[in-house]
Design a protein that fits this description.
Number of strands: 29
Strand order of the largest sheet: 3-4-5-6-7-8-9
Strand content: 35-45%
Radius of gyration: 25 Å
Helix content: 10-25%
Structural class: mainly beta
Distance between the termini: 54 Å
Shape: globular
Number of helices: 3
Largest sheet: 7 strands, antiparallel
Length: 408
């Protein structure tokens, strides 16, 4: 058994050295690309650190003094490696640096539109919400006392809305975030927050079968209440302020008129599972819902149609272009699919060059690029112009293990 233990330790040490060498090679290559292509350099550096960190905890079998098998953990010495020194040098060259005062696993990130604030939520501290002042990023991130997920920034950057452990919504004045927040009583757990595009309204979905709508110009007035049969998990306001969309815990989606067109909600059929994402397209034409059963449903908001369009091959996540003409989804084989919103019955275009299961999708502002983040620690980018089924897009860039490789 002693020989077996020594062999395992030797193998672990060999693997550690191989990974350290690989990390050093990747981060050295990143340094060379720092001036030519900072994004590529940073992706290489991330891959290098991942190669190094994969060996931080290794398992080996050891014998205790009584001869019984036991499992122990060995960790490398806490020394500054060559790869780490390369990354520090890279960050100094491209202007990147870790934000002080965060230091935990981050679940969500949101920039204020003026670029001054970065809002993060921390998974390990009950969804605690912290803000970083990007005008002076040497300052520690400020944890907002009592704030918790969810969170939402108003479009003008004046207000940050958060949940709390006190069954209230907190509104933080971003001109003075150290001041006591305005407290909006919901009487129940806050599940979802959404500002209208003009910042006039704040929608709140809560337990106790309710959604609320606050007028941000009259915060002392009672909010409008929308009674449901079940807890409300998601809320969204159409960009033209015509509709409030809500999703109940069991998946039922409803449209509520904000212009007095109808006093009763329009029940949107099609969803039977908890809705994980709910949003309107920027052109007000579509309401999109993604469910926990990995289905995607669409409703043409302008037509007030009660039946959804279910995209049979589509699975979340979902992204839509700003003009509302194209929708991107994932698929069972992890290939992004591009859907023509003018003809949702048409077969989607499958984008070639996908990797692992897709976790996030986003279009560039002009809709000409689609980016996908995957479980295999990659970000892939496609040029989506002039797409046809006979001419599918191929990956323009990929950051697989081993480095980012732009394709011409």
């Amino acid at each position: 058994m002693a020989a077996q233990q020594q062999a395992l330790v030797a193998k672990a040490e060999t693997e550690r050295l191989d990974r350290a060498i690989r990390a050093d090679q990747l981060t050295n290559e990143a340094l060379k690309l720092a001036k030519q292509s900072p994004p590529t350099a940073l992706l290489l550096a991330v891959e290098g650190l991942r190669a190094q960190n994969d060996h931080i905890i290794t398992h080996s079998l050891a014998l205790d003094r009584n001869g019984a098998d036991s499992q122990s953990l060995t960790t490398p010495e806490r020394v500054v490696t060559s790869a780490q020194r390369n990354v520090v040098e890279l960050l100094s060259q491209v202007g990147g640096r870790p934000l002080p005062g965060v230091g935990d696993a981050v679940e969500t990130l949101e920039w204020s539109r003026d670029g001054r604030w970065l809002v993060s939520s921390i998974t390990s501290v009950n969804g605690a919400v912290r803000i970083s002042n990007m005008a002076n990023s040497a300052e520690d991130a400020l944890q907002l006392r009592g704030a918790s997920l969810p969170s939402a920034l108003s479009p003008d950057g004046r207000w940050l809305a958060t949940g709390s452990l006190m069954l209230r919504v907190y509104l933080w004045d971003m001109a003075n975030p150290l001041a006591e927040p305005i407290s909006l009583n919901t009487g129940s757990q806050v599940n979802s927050l959404a500002f209208s595009a003009d910042g006039h309204w704040l929608a709140v979905g809560v337990d106790a079968n309710m959604a609320y709508l606050w007028d941000m110009t009259r915060l002392t007035a009672r909010p409008f209440g929308f009674q449901h049969d079940r807890d409300v998990e998601q809320v969204a306001i159409s960009p033209n302020n015509r509709w409030l969309a809500t999703a109940e815990r069991q998946g039922q989606v409803q449209l509520w008129s904000l212009t007095g067109e109808t006093s009763l909600p329009i029940i949107l059929a099609g969803t039977t599972a908890s809705v994980t994402d709910l949003f309107f397209s920027a052109d007000n034409q579509w309401l999109v819902a993604a469910s926990s059963k990995r289905t995607v449903h669409l409703w043409p908001a302008s037509a007030q149609a009660s039946d959804s369009i279910s995209l049979s091959r589509a699975i979340p996540p979902v992204a839509i272009t700003s003009d509302g003409l194209h929708l991107a989804t994932s698929s069972a084989n992890n290939a992004p699919l591009m859907w023509n919103m003018a003809d949702t019955n048409a077969a989607p275009i499958a984008l070639q060059g996908g990797g692992g299961p897709i976790l996030a999708l986003t279009f560039s502002a002009d809709g000409r690029r689609l980016a996908a983040g995957s479980e295999d620690h990659t970000v892939r980018i496609w040029d989506t112009t002039q797409l046809t089924n006979s001419r599918p897009a191929r990956t323009r860039g990929v950051s697989p293990s081993g480095g980012f490789q732009p394709k011409r």
